[in-house]
Amino acid sequence: MSKPGRVTSGIPRLDDLLGGGFIEESAILVRGAPGTGKTTLGLQFLLEGARRGEPGLFISFEEFPQSLYRDALSVGWNLPDFEQAGGLQLLFTSPQVLLQSLSTPHSNLLTTIQAIGTRRVVLDSLTHYTQVISDGHELRRAYHQVISAFRREGVTAIYLGEDMRSDYTNREKGRVSFIVDCLVLLRYLEIDSAIQRALLVLKMRSSAHSTTIHNYTIGQGGLAVGAPIEGKTGLLSGLVKSTIISNVQ
Asked: pTM for this one?
C-alpha cells in the first residue's frame, strides 16, 4: 500500500511533528483559546499553498475583510497580493449559508472551488455552529456535513475551533474531535510566572506523529515552533490557561 500524500503546513517544525506534514485531503482541527494564533496558523497554511501553486480558500464567520487584512499585515503578509495572483480567496458568510451552499451541488461556492482548483481550505471557526445549533445530534450532523463536503472536493481542510473548559467534558457537543483526522492544540501556559504558548499534535490518523509539547512564537512570517517543553505537567488539564508545575526531583 502506498503512503498517503503530504501537505506542508508552511511551518517547518510543525511538519516534523506531523511526520512530514498534514495528510492530503484530511480534516484538521486546530483548537485554542482566543489569541493563541489559530487564524495565523490557518493563513500560513493557505499562503504556503499559494506559493506552491495550490489555491486556497479562507472562510470566515466573524472577521471583517479589513480586520483580517490588518492582522495579516502585522506579521508581514499582504493578503490582497495573494488574492490578485489567484492563490487565495476570502469568503465572509454565516454558518447557515455555508451549510446550504455545501448541500447544493451547483452552488456558487462549490462551482468556484472546482473552477479555480482549490486545494486548501480554512474555516474560521467551526465553533460558531454551537451558537446556532443547540442539539448535540444536530450539531454532529452539521459537522459531518461540512467536513464530508470538503472531503468530496478533494481539499485539505483546517477547521479552527475555540478551546473552552466545557469542550473537554465527556459530553462534548457534536464530538467534533472524534470526526476530524488530525487535532492540533494551541495553549497558553503559565510557567514561572510568565505566559508562554504551547503546541501539541494530539491526534493524527493514518500516520505516526510526535506527542512532544513544544513552545511557539508569533512574529514576522507567522507562527514558529520552538523547543520542546520538558519536565512540566498539567498541559492537558482541560483549562484554557493551564498552570504548569515543575516535577519534584
From this structure: 0.89
**What is the fold of 6-187+198-213?**
Rossmann fold (3.40.50)
Task: Round to the nearest angstrom and report the end-to-end CA distance of the chain.
Answer: 47
Any idea what DSSP says for residue 87? S
Q: What residues does each domain of the chain span?
A: 6-187+198-213
How confident is the prediction along the chain (249 residues), in pLDDT tens digits per residue? Answer: 557 799 999 999 999 999 999 999 999 999 999 999 999 999 999 999 999 999 999 999 987 888 999 999 999 999 999 999 999 999 999 999 999 999 998 899 999 999 999 999 999 989 899 888 988 889 999 999 999 999 999 999 999 998 754 444 434 555 788 899 999 999 988 776 678 899 999 999 988 899 899 999 999 999 999 999 876 655 555 333 444 333 333
Contact 232, 246 (CB under 8 A): yes
Where would I find the H helices in 85-217? 95-102, 108-116, 129-132, 136-152, 176-179
Cα distances (angstroms) measured from residue 220 to each of 60, 82, 196:
23, 17, 18
Distance between CA 94 and CA 48 in Å, rounded?
26
Strands 194-204 and 245-246: unpaired
